[in-house]
Amino acid sequence: MSVLYALLFYVAFVLLVGGVGFKIYQYWSTPAPLKIPTTPAPTTRGGVVFRIGREVVLFESLFKSNKWIWLFGYMFHVGLALVLIRHGRYFQEVGPLLKFLQPFGIYAGFAMVAGLLGLWARRILVERIRYITGPSDHLILALLVGIGASGLMMKFVKHTDIVAVKVFFQNMMQFNLGALSLPGDPVLMLHLFLVAVLMIIFPLSKLLHAPGIFFSPTRNQVDNPREKRHIAPWAAEMEK
Questions:
Q1: CA 29/CA 51 separation, integer angstroms
Q2: What's the whole-model pTM score?
C-alpha cells in the first residue's frame, strides 16, 4: 500500500506540474488583440504590478463587489496558505519561521473549512449563483472540504503518527521505495488520496484561476490607449 500511494503521488505530481505548466504556456502565448483594462486602471507598468499584487493578496475587486463572498473566500485562501506552509515540516527540517507559524497553521484549518462551507452555501442558497453552478463545482468543493475535514480529524479526533508520515515523504522524495512505510490509518489514507485527486484534476478545473489571474488582460494591461497603440504581434505581422 505504501508503494501504491507513492506511485499515485508521483503520477499526481507529474500531472500537476505538467498540466499547470502547459496551461501557463497557453495563457502566455494567447494573443490579446484588444486593450481592455478594467478602469480605473493604472497608467504605468509599476502600477499594474501593484494592482495585481493587491488582487492576489487582498482580493480587492471581490471586496468591492461583495463583502460576504470576500469574507468566505479570504478565510479559505488565507487558511489554505497557512495550512500549506505548516505542511512544509513533512518535507524539510523545521526552521525558526516554520516553527513560529505552526500554531497558526493548526487553527487555520478551521478557517479554511468554514470559508469553503460558506462558499458552498452560496452556490446552493443564492438563486443566480445556483443557476450557473454545475456538478463539477459541487464536486470540487466537496473534495476540498473532505481534505480539510480529514486533516482536522487527524489533529483533533484520531491522531496519526506524523513522524512516520514525514519519513514516508522524505523517502519518497529520495525515490527510496524499499524503505517506504505509511501508517495504516484510514483517515490518513483518505486524506492523502483526496489530496492526490486534487493534484490530478487541478490543471483541468476552475482552480486554474490561481495562475490565470496573472494573465487576465483586464488586470495586466496598462491603461495607455491614447499614448500608445496596442497591437497584437500577429496583427503587426499582417501589416508588414
A1: 22
A2: 0.88
